[in-house]
Amino acid sequence: MIMIPERIFQSVFKKSRYPIKKEAYIMKNIRMVLLGELLLFVAVFAFLLMTGSYGLSAVAWFIDFPSLIIILLILIPGLIIMGEWKDFVKSFSVGIKDFRLLELKNIIEAVAAAQKLTVFAALFAVIISGVLIMGHLDDMSTLGPNLAVCFLSGLYAVIVEFFLLPLRLNAERRMNEEMDMGDE
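Predicted structure:
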């Protein structure tokens, strides 16, 4: 959650023509949080590439479409088969639209399912790649590049988790607020 000191919030938002509640401002920023995470990830990745001795040519080393396709082919149909796809899509609107307590619980479960499916998909891709590498150990010159590709599935899972975690935390926070408002 973006923490805004109360005095700054008061001076900026209370004096505007269209005053808003602090909670509404914070909750509507989940898409900005995801955009911020994307920019942070790209900046760190670019910094690591630029400070290394390989330069921009190393970008191609981090692209492996078969691994990415395997993860997406397990994640998206898995959510659809489990009936969680609609709730997963709703997770991008938590804080922008109002949801009932039960809907928030379902959204949290859908994002948790997406997190688990992402890990399982990456593990599946790593194991498949590992088996294929073991089948071609006769040419040792290709062992290093093949192992690098094998680990990209894990990297992709970490990146997807990097974006799923704020979705889940935002929905949990909103559910806690709904439960707290129900007690009053």
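Summary: The longest helix spans residues 143-183.
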